[in-house]
Please model this.
Amino acid sequence: MRLLCTVRNCGQPLARDDRAFRCANNHAFDVARSGYVNLLQPQDRKSKNPGDTAEAVLARRRFFEAGHVQPLVDAIVRALPLRGAVLDAGCGEGHHLDAFRRAYGVEAWGVDISVPAIELAAKTYRECGWVVANADRMLPFVDGSFDAVTSITARMNPEEFHRVLAPGGALLVVLPGAFDLVELREIVLGEGLERDRTERTIAQFAPLFTLEGRSSIAHTATLDRAAMIDVMSSSYRGLRTREREKLEALDAARVTLARDLLLFRAGTRG
Model:
């Protein structure tokens, strides 16, 4: 079993019975009806409902289902050919992880701190394993559990990514590109280009990983008003009323969707 108990000072492997995951110290975590397990501990949350809200999760799901971002999803999946188990850290509502599973037929696990995100993921993509946990602090998986880890426009934890990867495992980090949503950000937020975060990210992972490849992908889509509101609401959870009003005044726009991809290989454990 890959999962670990998250009770403070425990960390024992978890085994599943009919309705719960349980460790040797008899700490138990119920499996929700939709199939996910919540391993989040009180000390691992900074608010009562951490992570993406239900509104943001549903907005992102609608945007994915509309197909606007599919060329980017396809390119991301091609960038990491898989032969073994994969973990998506900060998986959100699960669209990317299920795309990897369908493409390669591998065991797939997703972890996110947002209960609404994992709830929706588990209801929709039942072939994957879903966990609520704070990946910024700890990934609740046994050392060397995965052949690959992905972090797709999500928070990053190099030490934990390295720990849960098998020796020589692959890590794919996907960042918003400098031109991502540039047209909407200029109109709504008054911002220009995003700062390039690739060099900073490469430096962050350099002590534990070797960079094997880097690339950028971009796609331009015509978005109607509803799609523009969805993508901005899911990308910028703190949209203010006046910013939302600017979006609602638009009928449609050509919008750039862009990603920077960094492929790393895990170094030998010290």
